[in-house]
Amino acid sequence: MLTRKQYELLMFIHERLKESGVPPSFEEMKDALDLRSKSGIHRLITALEERGFLRRLPNRARALEVIRLPESVASGPASTRARGFTPSVIDGDGPRIRPAEPRPAAAGETAGGVSIPVMGRIAAGVPIEAIQTHTHSITVPVELAGAGEHFALEVRGDSMVEAGIFDGDTVVIRRTDAATTGDIVVALVDDEEATLKRLRRKGASIALEAANPAYETRIFGPDRIRIQGRLVALLRRY
Questions:
Q1: Which residue among 75, 137, 159, 202 is the active-site one?
Q2: Catalytic residue at 197?
Q3: Whose CA, among 83, 109, 181, 183, lies 20 to 30 Å from 63?
């Protein structure tokens, strides 16, 4: 699933290629999506490449090829446009996620467990979207979750390995918009993409710090970051 901005960019490029056979310039893409800088377009194109929707053609300036469209577009009318798309990012303005009532224990579970919705994937690496789609639920001991609202995310990437968080792990997140320096948080960047990082405050700025020397610490203005939750537990299958 794509974020709203990723979807809009993909459809803008697709429509321009259909109309003229020439992809839009980065400046045109920036203006069409109402972004503040071209760096946002670079991030979106990289994300679309990684998901197999776009391909950058070598040795040709601004040459882009649309490999495929989202299923909802490919199976619908050819005139489907991005404006009808609603993103599914974890957003404090979206539906509230509440822990499910404890259910009778299934095989291998304890009666005292709490069912928590798994809401998609989170990047521990280059930011990708965190998708607010309830794929399934997991049962965790009450003492791991504690009070408050919780959700779980499957980790993709290796930028938090030195904090003991590996690709394929499941993290349990307590929903909150507040965090202190040193907390590992789900942070929403520019209302588009979510990532799992350690939060550091540097004056008025916010740093998202990896736990892997291969990744750089990224620093943002406070208006570009929204905290979606704080890590409270980690689950791993062997």
A1: 159
A2: yes
A3: 83
